[in-house]
Amino acid sequence: MSELNPKLHAIYDEVLHRNPGEAEFHQAVFEVLSSLGPVVTKHPEYVDRAVIRRMCEPERQIIFRVPWLDDDGNVQINRGFRVEFNSALGPFKGGLRFHPSVYLGIIKFLGFEQIFKNSLTGLPIGGGKGGSDFDPKGRSDNEIMRFCQSFMTELYRHLGEYTDVPAGDIGVGGREIGYLFGQYKRITNRYESGVLTGKGLSWGGSQVRTEATGYGAVYFADEILKTAKDSFEGKRAVVSGSGNVAIYAIEKIHQLGGTVVACSDSSGYIVDEKGIDLELLKEIKEIKRDRIEAYAKTRGGATEFVNGGSIWDVPCQIAIPSATQNELHRDHAATLAKNGCKIVAEGANMPCTPDAVKLFADAGVTVAPGKAANAGGVATSALEMQQNASRDSWSFEYTEQRLAAIMKSIHHRCLVTADEYGAPGNYVLGANIAGFIQVADAMTALGLI
């Protein structure tokens, strides 16, 4: 609490009181509020008009039962969530996460982060998030289809291209989006392609959407390097995770001349000193859906699989945590800093703990927060919405140019805002303030709603 401006103490206390037991949400709110001291000093009206208090309270929280039949004919029950957090800038926009760790606090943290992330893109989209404690791992396609159909049977009534537009997240890829959209279409008898993003290319999806989050994080890191008159050429990088974000972050780093030597999954991590073989990684994770150890067994040679352990023990100059929230702790940060890491670009949402972020700051390591660095995914989702609205389809090259331009703009906004509020080079503060001010001004203009 010592880091908060006194005017924000009461707001944070209220968040704790009204949302007991939601540790991730508390962390996300504190992280933003701790950046807003200079803003409150300059613009006390944001406190006086309860703009900040309203921003910490979702517009709507939807919780529902999801019953479905498994392949043995047994009834399974999961819980579904959609938190429609803030629509001051446009329809609610944010992914769906299917993972056993999901509960209301996780969804609220993700939705709160999404408000500022979407604001930073400069596109007209509000913040929301959803999901379920359903675990797709080990489930058949038919089981996943039945679950998705049951999930959408309740959620559909809350969606619309001008109301709320979900996308994918952990556990929700093209297969799940297809089943969800099919059920929405079946129930409504309308082909509203703009109601879900992350769709297949043959039925309304956007080029680059699959690559966007990973590409975007690397584009942001590249802008940091360019600011220092440097580049990825010859740089050694480590990317945690081995899912969609990690795979395409690795791809873009290699395209820009860097070498990714390690990636991971929940079982451990691999170190490949020659550089991760991207085609083999895609085959293992996207086609065979196997564990990361299979990469080391297939690749052989100097590739090492470490069971458990910390991927952040691997020396690098650039780290891109792309697995999940709070994966990178203070001890990991100390090791990275000691081993010469200079940039941490968050590919996941809030992957660094507050203690890790503080240590990085003290050690002179530049941190690009997730709400800025991984905004490429939702930005390209918004581009998909544009194409759906105009019944258009853009090329890969044009869409990637748009993505690169958006990430460059986000980087510029963060840098300029940090300078304006007395913290040059502090991307965390710059992202929080830039994202906040745009939403806060829109909320003020719309009146007390």
Automatic annotation (TrEMBL):
Keywords: NAD, Nucleotide-binding, Oxidoreductase. The keyword Oxidoreductase applies. GO terms for cellular component: cytosol. InterPro entries: Aminoacid_DH-like_N_sf (IPR046346), Glu/Leu/Phe/Val/Trp_DH (IPR006095), Glu/Leu/Phe/Val/Trp_DH_C (IPR006096), Glu/Leu/Phe/Val/Trp_DH_dimer (IPR006097), Glu/Leu/Phe/Val_DH_AS (IPR033524), Glu_DH (IPR014362), Glu_Leu_Phe_Val_DH (IPR050724), NAD(P)-bd_dom_sf (IPR036291). Residues 206-447 form the Glutamate/phenylalanine/leucine/valine/L-tryptophan dehydrogenase C-terminal domain. NAD(+) binds at residues 213, 244. Substrate binds at residues 93, 114, 117, 168, 381. GO terms for biological process: glutamate biosynthetic process. The record marks 169 as: Important for catalysis. SMART domains: ELFV_dehydrog. Gene3D superfamilies: Glutamate Dehydrogenase, chain A, domain 3 (1.10.285.10), Leucine Dehydrogenase, chain A, domain 1 (3.40.50.10860), NAD(P)-binding Rossmann-like Domain (3.40.50.720). The keyword NAD applies. The active site is at 129 (proton donor). PROSITE patterns: GLFV_DEHYDROGENASE (PS00074). GO terms for molecular function: glutamate dehydrogenase (NADP+) activity; nucleotide binding. Pfam families: ELFV_dehydrog, ELFV_dehydrog_N. PANTHER family: NADP-SPECIFIC GLUTAMATE DEHYDROGENASE 1-RELATED (PTHR43571:SF1). Belongs to the Glu/Leu/Phe/Val dehydrogenases family. Homohexamer. This is Glutamate dehydrogenase.
